[in-house]
């Protein structure tokens, strides 16, 4: 039955993906399921530090209406003020440590493939929301968390201590982790586990100490110039689009650093209102990455200087806004040693170290727990993939979901079992 439940949740969530900060349907279904199992519920508005919310520009009422139409739980939907995300707390009533698990719930802003070979399309559970797709396995992560909650409820008489299940919004773009970490609910956690399906690992493998998590800054830049008639008086205008284009070219030419890997990308550039109008406004969206905080800071500092110079050359003004952040991750060594025999006990092939090579805002949660004296680790649950992460034909081997639940259950029993 576990595999059936996992498949049900995964495919329902895949059918109804919700992008960062729009996860209203997902949030209500999680809250209802955990509440029915006996968990105490805390929703995003109480869970997240609102001053650290990044990259959130949505129409809340429109997204709530969409979610309700697609099957959101009505009562829980009315309890959400603005922010998505859920924490479920299981308190055994017996002394013991506090364990926590983190599952990200948002989808990627990518159009799902309509190719006949794409399994979700064949099964009728491809995305119902144009431009949104679970192309990074967060539907699988959430399914693992929901079925783990069922296992916790079933094991109630055998458990001590407390368990917190964090269902985090807005991991894509690294927008939600910092706010969740600062919300205060991690400060009493003795040990935290987070996982990701599929990255650089195949079905049956578990990477217990992934490395090379990239620090990152996601940013938007707005250039404000002066519109003017391009034929009659171009001299009266200040070309914001020209400033944005100059900045883009210069950013892509930032010298890479000698001390380690650095990256930059400008992924979107928009501006102007007409062929014969000097553009008075332009906006670009980009990101920097670095192997360390210092290297990422080097890249972002270069971006700021370039933007200032490009605006000055065109007589424009500008505004830079951070839209997401990520830091590195270092797993707690003792926790790694604890996980290895548990994984081997359920026939997972443990791999000590493998390069991650991307960014993950779970770093803020892991850092917070470790700063307060706890242990934390990020695991890679291997899975064979139909296409790479964030690809329109992404899909993963659903058979890995049950071992994922079994591993997390084995760990909490080892720590909290009577």
Q: What do you see in this structure?
A:
With 418 residues, the chain is an alpha/beta fold. The chain has two domains: 2-211 and 328-416, Aminopeptidase (3-Layer(aba) Sandwich); 215-325, Alpha-Beta Plaits. The chain is built from 13 helices and 14 strands. The protein has an eight-stranded mixed beta sheet. A four-stranded antiparallel beta sheet has the order 9-11-7-12. α1 (2-15) packs antiparallel against α7 and α2 runs parallel beside α7. The longest helix is centred in the last third of the chain and has 22 residues, at 293-314.
Summarize the topology.
Layout: H1 2-15, H2 24-37, E1 40-43, H3 44-47, H4 60-69, H5 74-79, E2 86-91, E3 98-104, H6 119-123, H7 138-154, E4 162-168, H8 177-181, E5 191-197, E6 205-207, E7 215-224, E8 228-229, H9 240-252, E9 262-271, E10 277-278, E11 281-290, H10 293-314, E12 317-326, H11 333-345, E13 349-351, H12 362-371, E14 375-381, H13 401-416
Parallel strand pairs: 3-4, 3-5, 5-14, 6-13
Antiparallel strand pairs: 1-2, 2-4, 6-14, 7-11, 7-12, 8-10, 9-11
